[in-house]
From TrEMBL:
Keywords: Nucleus, tRNA processing. It is found in: Nucleus. GO terms for biological process: tRNA threonylcarbamoyladenosine modification. The keyword Secreted does not apply. It comes from the Eukaryota. It holds the Pfam family CGI-121. This is EKC/KEOPS complex subunit CGI121. Belongs to the CGI121/TPRKB family. One of its GO terms (cellular component) is EKC/KEOPS complex. The keyword tRNA processing applies.
Length: 231
């Protein structure tokens, strides 16, 4: 007789308050596993740490060939006073060097930027960029939406934005100084990012349920949205 999987020791019994959490956890694990074709060993976790480690490996378990560009530099600016002017210059393409200007209040953890950057590099490597540049692709990848304009508006610079993350691939030694001349704000150690994040705005933007935060961190939930956008 076939064994009822709902009664195994790994799954709560029907009627248990933990059953709903169990089903959601299994669903999230299934979606992430299918979104990322990575080597899976035993009961390997699907959180941010596991995803980040597995991004560098292919299905055979061997390390992938390095993608180019090969580095990402990130700067954090607080108390920004000229967000409106910055937005106009970005739209006009007047800023050099090119970079991704990101609303810091929408980023709960620096890992989110790393994940978006990896997705952008992978699309660039495969010739499948959705946007017109590598840096705008990074910004687009932060969203759980497939709508480019909506994503850039929600996560990019907007009028009144007081904190910014600026990310650039393969930055030259003087790029940081050049970017600092554009932004009228205080250059802050990247460790201060968590104090800039707006958890409530992030949860609303990604439609994150309270139950998800019982299973992992806010960054975990955001990674799940980003990774399963194309599913």
């Amino acid at each position: 007789m076939q064994r009822n999987l709902l009664h195994t020791k790994h799954c709560p019994r029907p009627g248990s308050r933990k059953l709903k959490s169990y089903k959601l956890r299994k669903l999230v694990s299934h979606l992430i596993f299918n979104a990322w074709p990575v080597l899976r060993v035993g009961r390997q976790a699907c959180g941010t740490k596991a995803i980040y480690q597995d991004l560098l490996r292919d299905c055979s378990g061997k390390r992938k060939q390095p993608l180019t560009p090969g580095s990402l530099s990130v700067w954090l600016f607080c108390d920004v006073q000229n967000s409106r002017e910055l937005r106009e210059q970005i739209v006009e393409g007047a800023l050099e060097p090119e970079a991704a200007f990101i609303k810091a209040s929408m980023v709960p953890d620096l890992f989110i930027i790393r994940l978006a950057a990896y997705q952008a590099l992978l699309a660039h490597h495969n010739g499948s960029l959705t946007t017109r540049s590598l840096h705008s692709e990074l910004l687009f990848n932060l969203s759980g939406s497939k709508h480019i304009a909506e994503s850039l508006k929600k996560f990019g610079v907007s009028e009144g934005c007081s904190s910014l993350l600026v990310a650039r691939f393969d930055a030259a030694s003087n790029d940081g100084d050049q970017i600092a001349t554009y932004v009228q704000g205080n250059l802050t150690p990247i460790s201060g990012l968590s104090s800039c994040a707006d958890p409530q705005a992030i949860k609303e933007a990604y439609k994150i349920l309270p139950l998800e935060l019982e299973l992992g961190s806010l960054a975990d939930a955001v990674c799940g949205r980003m990774s399963t956008r194309s599913c």
